[in-house]
């Protein structure tokens, strides 16, 4: 595709929203890559006008990651050294970006030996003190031989499929790696009496429910760790990462698309948080300094700053290069949440929102001593429900005749079942708050919420409405108009006839 020199398309511009609408009209979402020369020329003009608007607003004065670049969090060096010095450290996914950075940082604490386990073909840091094994964590026998040979004291479990788009294309492989592979790691940690196991999770696991394969696999693995922490002997913890700036999939893809001369983008006005590699590595190491617990600890960066306008990334790079490349919106693909569920945030804590911690988890959250991290625990859930879900998932993923779409549907269904047990174990007032925050018509577009989060609303309502009904007179003080507003939304959700009837009785006794 053609590019044009920067400045050619700067002559006139309208409002940003008008430009977005014209771009979407020229290339409707899902219609495929535009090829008509006239359409491409107009897209180029509109892209140039967007650059002009962003530039005049000062949004392209520095790289969109600029506010993130120099950020870090404190590290508990003395405590980390006590856990690593003279000990054997095993890192699954050790050849990935964060794995390599973690190994370099861990080496400063004088461990006896560092072991990297990865599916990569070769290792860049083999030495007497560092050993590389090429192995897939989904291969239990291979992984067991490594544990037997090395007898690790500390395990950092980073190996996983990390790209949401690829996870949607390789659903069976993602479940084998992210879920079955994690089961293997946890089993061997217990068998070989590992002291600490730290898992790298994702902020996407904070969702109550998700149909996305990558996010869903991360949510299930957190449940796996929580069960292991409660029933095993190893000290387990997890850290939740968001977008790591130095290893940004989005930035890399935008640069590649600019080079090709046509930029496809999910949709306008999408935002994301980011963090640095130093923050990611320090989160992992700091997990070793936290007090042991029978609950699975979750740690994340406490202050992620303002979210980044993702569209500013390609526009900034075009401005920096002095070119304009046609840009269009192709729609949100599978693997990426289209709308954020408002009830995920704890609205009782005004000014303390953290998108990495959901409103169930804030009940046990606290800042660490440095106040750079937020520490919480995986919300309670039914271990029996998880065990049943894992059995069905593994069976489904192992069946060669089961289509990918069927495996994905089952993953979504199993997450829904286990998540519902979390809400059944949550104080009823908090569960109700999450529901009403999520469907507050004064703050959200209900049609959009129902399109993106009907399963979430359904599982919360199925857990909370029977509890409300049992509370009886204790709910006389509830704002009845709020009950009525929620009831109107629930009437539009499939499979909630019984809950609607119960809530109607509470609303109009």
Tags for this model:
509 residues; 17 strands; 9-stranded mixed beta sheet; two-stranded antiparallel sheet; alpha/beta
Structure in words:
With 509 residues, the protein is of the alpha/beta class. It has 17 helices and 17 strands. It has helices at 16-26, 37-56, 77-84, 97-107, 140-150, 164-169, 171-191, 213-231, 249-260, 277-286, 312-321, 383-398, 404-424, 428-438, 446-471, 480-490, 497-507, and strands spanning 4-5, 88-92, 113-118, 130-134, 154-157, 196-202, 235-241, 243-244, 263-265, 271-272, 274-275, 297-301, 308-309, 323-324, 327-329, 366-367, 373-377. The protein has a nine-stranded mixed sheet with strand order 4-3-2-5-6-7-12-17-16, sandwiched between helices. Strands 1-14 form a two-stranded antiparallel sheet. The chain has a two-stranded parallel ribbon with strand order 8-11. Helix 16 packs antiparallel against helix 17. The longest helix is centred in the last third of the chain and has 26 residues, at 446-471. The termini are far apart. The model is unreliable at 1-13 (pLDDT under 50).
